[in-house]
Amino acid sequence: MASGQSTSPVVISAESLTSRAPETFPIDNTVPSRGDVTWLTLFSSSTTPTNSLTAGLATCPPGTGHLCAHRHEQAEIYYVTEGRGIMTIDGTENQVGPGSAVFVPGNAEHGIRNVGEGELKWFYVFGADRFEDVVYRFS
């Protein structure tokens, strides 16, 4: 569905979400690690009849959890729902925890690491029709 086309409301049941397997970066021993993180894409025009936004839930496990520094064209919003972390944006470290909201401008270098005892979880949103349109460029 192209951006700008008319869409209808979409509601995804909790049962449908819990039946989905989490996603992660493909294992490729020829490139450096991209992090220890999984995500569940909630809305993306490639999987839902939606447009304009892509959103999901990401999780970093305790101890090793992190998403390496990267950039992408699209601006992004994080809303932390659980855990404690350090989010670095363009070299500046910021402590985040439940209720923290973060706006990352397009092409800003950013990454996050779990510094808490439990999982670090956040809701993310991109201004993109499809998750596949977000091209991660790792530092």
TrEMBL record:
InterPro entries: Cupin_2 (IPR013096), GPI/OXD (IPR051610), RmlC-like_jellyroll (IPR014710), RmlC_Cupin_sf (IPR011051). Keywords: Metal-binding. Pfam families: Cupin_2. Residues 57-126 form the Cupin type-2 domain. GO terms for molecular function: metal ion binding. It comes from the Eukaryota. This is Cupin type-2 domain-containing protein.
